[in-house]
Prior knowledge:
mainly alpha
Amino acid sequence: MIRSxxxxxxxxxxxxxxxxxxGVVDKMCTKYDAPRETIARDVGKILDNLKRINALDE
Length: 58
């Protein structure tokens, strides 16, 4: 089972268009008031989880 939250849902929405991981981080930085390093780490974790369950191609 995979649990999601609004942040993960937003990332999935962004991934419906062709966008790089860095592009996702950029968009997240404009939406959320958090340090870029924190956002980048969290985006990386979510992308890794999506890859792990085969929901995201490399």
